[in-house]
Amino acid sequence: MRITALAGGVGGARFIRGLRAHLDRVSPESEITVIANTGDDISLFGLRVCPDVDTLLYTLGGGIDEEQGWGRADESTRVQGELEAYGALPQWFTLGDLDLGTHIVRSQWLAQGQTASEVTARLAARWGLPEQRIRLLPMTDTPVETHVVLDEGETQRAVHFQEWWVRLRAEVPASRFVVAGLDRAAAAPGVLDALRDADVIVLPPSNPVVSIGIILGVPGVRDALRGSTAPVVGVSPLISGRPVRGHADACLAAIGVDSTSAAVAGLYADFLDGWLVDPADASVRVRGVETAVHGGPLLMTDVDATAAIAADLLALAERVRR
Ligand code: GDP
Ligand code: CA
């Protein structure tokens, strides 16, 4: 079976890890293609940082800081301490020493003329993704960046997504998101093929606006989903109207969408076939979408709990296969 997933960082990575664990039990030959959001990418100190790709690499490769959900386990921040001593800015974005190794090698390979896809494939090889039959693709090789237009009354100011998310903790209301470069971007090699050739397309519980929503904006992606003959099924990132972690509610508010599981499914209604929700959201109904209720809390507390969510999602995909 070929499964294609769209993914952001923590929610996407944890889900894919559970999906792989489930498939290893029932269908080890299955292949997973992950199309990663690159709208969060940022250049810092001359280095290209790709937070969602890195979270996917570290989580799937066994190097993640489990508690935090992002960054490397057993990390230190000695380099950042030096940067601080020099008064180098910005200091609100954590760059661990081990993590910097990734950004340095990525930046070097990009400077040598390799594409983001080529670089990601080399990074993925180090983390053992090919051996797990996981192919990690950036959504595009074109540098794109999500910017947030802040709602500050009279004045309008845009900041990089990371500044809004990390430094401002999404507490300053956003009036909209603008993805610089996205309209001129092309889907990375393999992305549209992976959507066309998939047996099942899955949406992990990634942020619907700034993770999945950005990938859907890559020219051709949304059309590929609408035209898909394979079932498209997703896991709700909200439980009883609240994001399990992060600020998805602030992102939804910015685009004028209710913070409910039903409203999130509504964002995907033009291509979504099945939606998996928490028992607390059992009453959710979305026109044209088959809803299934997970047998327990829709929480990716550990790999086994996540594998059970993935199992339910694939069962739903079989029910809605058209
Ligand atoms: P990010 O790029 O690191 O912010 O990660 P993603 O966009 O991939 O995922 C973030 C979303 O995952 C948030 O909206 C969370 O609500 C959702 N999420 C995180 N953990 C869980 C979980 O255990 N269960 C569910 N249902 N959603 C989760
Ligand atoms: Ca992200």
From TrEMBL:
<dbReference type="GO" id="GO:0043743">
    <property type="term" value="F:LPPG:FO 2-phospho-L-lactate transferase activity"/>
</dbReference>
<dbReference type="InterPro" id="IPR010115">
    <property type="entry name" value="FbiA/CofD"/>
</dbReference>
<dbReference type="InterPro" id="IPR002882">
    <property type="entry name" value="CofD"/>
</dbReference>
<protein>
    <submittedName>
        <fullName>2-phospho-L-lactate transferase</fullName>
    </submittedName>
</protein>
<dbReference type="Pfam" id="PF01933">
    <property type="entry name" value="CofD"/>
</dbReference>
<keyword id="KW-0460">Magnesium</keyword>
<keyword id="KW-0808">Transferase</keyword>
<dbReference type="InterPro" id="IPR038136">
    <property type="entry name" value="CofD-like_dom_sf"/>
</dbReference>
<dbReference type="GO" id="GO:0000287">
    <property type="term" value="F:magnesium ion binding"/>
</dbReference>
